[in-house]
Specification:
The complex is a heterodimer of chains A (102) and B (827). Chain A has 102 residues and is an alpha+beta fold. Chain A contains two helices and four strands, in the order βαββαβ. The chains are: A alpha+beta (102), B alpha+beta (827). β4 of chain A pairs parallel with β13 of chain B.
């Protein structure tokens, strides 16, 4: 756990006011211990098209809720923000499919 | 007719006693009745003697309780003996046992009373009050008890528990005596069908109401409104309750704002939603139950709603405290005995004598006594004109007569069966093939996305299709709905598939949806598939892709995500792995140290994310706050809550204020050159008419700020009053708290000071006595003397004694009797 998460990749929209500085990107290996770690009880956001995730990242209403970008189609949601993210997505005009659990 | 209805609902229907089927209608037994044997042990010897007499007539040999039980057990296992028992049943006993058999072996006893009354069967002879059943003496408290008590004594009926409403007098420790009864399975299996009997209508002088318009409330209105209510709950995602379990008023108000047409009925419909089991334990909509509910026929849904209403009515606590909990059940059954529209008063009087009085649990009339006065009909009237009208069970029509002044006066109220009740009876006959109905599509999907609904033609499939639309207008005969992206999304989220919806619109609309509508619906459905949010997942994080891939090869349940992650459906995490739980209270791994944050351990993703957004790592586990990042709003309210949840100790107040000022939640501080006026009794001096205009800005009880422009004028006034002010200002520790408090202030003045402080948002420094209670209702006296700072919020009165309510700086609530304040300072 020695380094901060990496910065957003080139081409992504600049971080707007009131949002986190940068969302760690796919494959980033931030502070991590050598044995695998398990993150239990997370909310996962998955998009059908990578362009959709890029658009969500660029949206200042959604970006604060994405704690980590896991792949070009997956992002982990800020813990405790499941309902707030859904509200924000709906306010932003999205109609997300909501699932209880994998 | 019951296919598709969840078994819990069926059970609820039966246990609540609602049965709209014909008295001889079939019902598939579903419950397993208990054996008489197990109940024999709970009877005393005399009670067992009665059962012996019924099951083993003529057996005088068995004298001990054990021998008698043995004889009964052998008899109930013998087909020949059971046939003898059945042959000895009275017509009433045979009919009631058969009713229990039809219900699957278990039934609410009130339902049996209703059946006996509807078939106009006389109760058996009254038992002696010296008779004991399950160790309890009989009581006359329940007028309807006479129909069942003999059968319970003889073991033909078995109570669901010894704390039964029927067996005898209830004791104080019988917190909730049950009215459910059973019968032995072997007895029921051997029971043949009884002779058919028709319900006997109550003879009334019916009135001709042909000139009165038809009822505007139908069963379809009930079902549509219930569906609309559940849609609202789906949109909200939850139901909100107060601490006492009642529905939150602000929540109901919010829903009513969304659907003004439902205002006034939402409390009832939300209650029905609960009693239909459509909400899970977490007060969230239960889509599985809803799915079962909507898969059932309309008649079943309506019956389920009525059963839920009876449960809701019985459990509504203080709302209906003065009413008999059996009233809705009794009234629904009694209404079916009406031979036609009749005067409300006459009908209620007749139904009361013939039927309703037997259901009272609050009168002391014996079941075979001539009551000196019947129970009040006011509760029944209110029920008929209120909930029953809303639920389309009854229709009370007010007839008016024009007077000379051109005014209309109520001349008579007519009671007739509601459209819903009539429909249920018609549907029952239709199910039996007696009545045929023409099937026509009930919907018309118009090109502008509006859907016209003909209520009379409504069926279960069309009602399901309406879940994907928003109600625009609901009239007596028709309704108008609108297809919107939000309404379609809500329906898809509640389990309806796009294919189902399109198919329903095709089959249920007399005008098939246009190509534009179909393509738009497909587009809306497709949009939903673009983003998926899945809660409660477990994500594994590996140090490298190679590690992850190696694990994937050995663990087929894993799904690769990105370079180094994998999703797992399993919950067991190997012990040597670091595990972070986001579905439980977070670990408090952070604490403030001056301007730095100290982190214990690696921290979960949220902690890492928080730190990366507004802090810089300066040493192992030490992060220095970046004021620029905080000023730029990187600590959003959500993240601040998350941070506080992971903090040991409080969030620094100064930093909190700075952030609030930066993000505009609080205004910036003021910096104003000023002149101060200070005196230990400054507050009294400020009351002087000459000084008052200058002393309008108290800083505390002893110090006032002066307007710089008026200082010279103020000095002149002081000179005129022969006051020569000094220049030494007492500040800081030298000015003790003791010295700044104003003491011996009258209560009225204290109250004014406190009210001024509330208006100005000021804090009070107080020395006061706590109020001490001498016993529960004893006098209140002065207690411990306290000194503390309190932020007052309101002045309240208990009788005529003023108190003020507020909070300490630590957030503790305080309620201080103003008369007990010894010293005060506004700071």
């Amino acid at each position: 756990m020695s380094s901060k998460p990496s910065k957003a990749k080139a081409g992504a929209a600049p971080a707007p006011q009131g949002t986190p500085k940068a969302t760690p990107q796919a494959g980033a290996t931030p502070e991590r211990t050598s044995p695998p770690s398990a993150h239990v009880g997370l909310t996962l956001l998955e998009v059908a098209d990578p362009a959709d995730l890029r658009a969500l990242e660029a949206d200042p209403r959604i970006r604060p809720f994405l704690v980590r970008i896991l792949s070009e189609r997956h992002a982990a949601v800020l813990p405790g923000s499941h309902t707030a993210l859904l509200e924000a997505l709906k306010k932003a005009g999205h109609t997300p499919k909501v699932q209880a659990k994998v | 007719m019951n296919e598709g209805i969840p078994s819990e609902l069926l059970e609820a229907l039966r246990s609540m006693g609602v049965d709209y089927g014909a008295p001889d209608g079939p019902r598939a037994p579903t419950a397993l009745p208990p054996k008489l044997d197990s109940w024999l042990e709970r009877m005393d010897a005399t009670h067992v003697g009665y059962v012996l007499k019924r099951f083993v007539s003529g057996d005088k040999a068995a004298t001990s309780k054990a021998a008698r039980i043995g004889a009964i057990t052998r008899a109930i296992s013998s087909k020949a003996q059971l046939d003898k028992v059945i042959a000895g049943l009275s017509p009433l006993e045979h009919r009631l046992l058969w009713q229990v058999k039809q219900a699957g072996g278990m039934l609410d006893g009130w339902q049996l009373v209703a059946v006996a009354l509807m078939l106009n069967m006389d109760p058996p002879e009254r038992l002696s009050t010296s008779t004991q059943i399950y160790g309890r003496p009989l009581s006359d408290e329940l007028p309807g008890r006479g129909y069942l008590v003999g059968m319970l004594r003889d073991g033909l009926l078995l109570p669901a528990s010894t704390s039964t409403l029927w067996s005898g007098r209830s004791y104080y420790y019988d917190s909730d005596p049950t009215s459910v009864v059973w019968a032995d399975k072997r007895l029921l299996e051997a029971l043949p069908d009884p002779p058919k009997r028709e319900w006997v209508k109550v003879q009334l002088n019916t009135v001709d109401v042909q000139h009165i318009p038809a009822s505007t409330r139908t069963q379809f209105h009930v079902l549509l409104e219930l569906t609309e209510t559940f849609k609202l709950v789906l949109e909200e995602g939850q139901m909100i309750f107060n601490k006492d379990g009642s529905l939150n008023k602000a929540y109901i108000k919010r829903l009513a704002k969304k659907r003004p047409a439902l205002e006034g009925t939402l409390t009832l419909y939300l209650g029905l939603t609960l009693y239909l089991g459509l909400m899970n334990d977490a007060d969230r909509p239960d889509l599985n139950v809803w799915s079962s509910f909507r898969a059932s026929a309309l008649t079943d849904r309506y019956e389920a709603v009525l059963a839920a209403y009876i449960g809701f009515y019985g459990q509504s606590g203080h709302t209906y405290a003065t009413r008999d909990p059996q009233a809705p059940l009794a009234l629904t059954q009694a209404l079916r005995l009406l031979s036609g529209p009749a005067s409300l008063d006459a009908a209620l009087d007749a139904l009361n004598r013939r039927f309703l009085r037997y259901f009272s649990t609050s009168t002391s009339h014996g079941w075979n006594q001539k009551p000196s006065s019947l129970p009040s009909t006011d509760a029944y009237k209110a029920l008929l004109e209120g909930d029953f009208a809303l639920l389309a069970l009854a229709d009370v029509v007010t007839l008016g007569a024009k007077t000379g002044a051109g005014k209309t006066e109520v001349s008579q109220k007519i009671l007739r069966l509601g459209a819903g009740m009539q429909w249920l009876e018609r549907e029952t006959r239709r199910d039996a093939g007696v009545v045929k109905t023409l099937v026509k599509p009930p919907l018309v999907v118009q090109p502008n996305f509006e859907v016209m609904v003909f209520l009379e033609l409504l069926n279960a499939e069309a009602l399901t299709a309406l879940e994907a639309m928003d109600l625009v207008r609901l009239d007596a005969q028709t309704a108008t709905y609108s297809l919107t992206r939000g309404s379609v999304y809500r329906a898809l989220e509640s389990g309806l598939t796009l294919e189902n919806l399109l198919a329903l619109l095709q089959t249920q609309s007399s005008l098939p949806p246009s190509g534009a509508i179909v393509s738009t619906l497909k587009d809306w459905g497709g949009r939903r598939d673009r983003i998926t949010v899945t809660g409660g997942v477990t994500l594994l994080e590996f140090s490298s892709r190679a590690d992850r891939d190696a694990r994937l090869e050995t663990h087929r349940v894993l799904t690769a995500v990105g370079e180094t992650y994998a999703l797992t459906g399993g919950k067991t995490i190997p012990k040597d792995w670091v595990s972070y739980r986001y579905d439980a209270a977070p670990e408090r791994s952070l604490r403030f140290s001056g301007n730095d944050l100290l982190l214990e351990g690696p921290g979960d993703w949220l902690v890492q994310d928080l730190l990366s957004s507004f802090a810089t790592k300066t040493a192992l586990g030490r992060y220095t706050l970046e004021m620029d990042a905080l000023r730029a709003g990187k600590l959003t309210p959500e993240r601040k809550v998350a941070l506080e949840g992971r903090l040991k100790g409080p969030f620094p107040r100064a930093l909190n204020t700075l952030i609030d000022v930066w993000n505009g939640k609080q205004k910036p501080p003021a910096l104003v050159p000023t002149t101060l006026f200070q005196h230990p009794q400054a507050m009294f001096l400020a009351e002087h008419p000459r000084l008052k205009p200058f002393l309008s800005q108290p800083l505390n009880a002893t110090t006032y700020a002066l307007d710089t422009a008026k200082v010279k004028d103020f000095q002149k006034v002081l000179a005129e009053l022969h006051i020569s002010p000094g220049t030494a200002l007492e500040t800081g520790p030298a000015q003790s708290v003791q010295s700044t408090l104003l003491e011996n202030i009258p209560t009225r003045k204290l109250r004014e000071l406190i009210e001024d402080a509330i208006g100005a948002g000021r804090t009070l420094e107080l020395k006061y006595h706590e109020e001490k209670y001498a016993g529960g209702w004893g006098p209140k006296t002065q207690g411990k003397l306290r000194r503390e700072k309190i932020i007052p919020s309101s002045v309240v009165y208990e009788a005529s004694t003023p108190y003020f309510v507020g909070k300490t700086e630590d957030g503790d609530s305080r309620r201080v009797r103003i008369g007990y304040i010894q010293g005060i300072a506004v700071i």
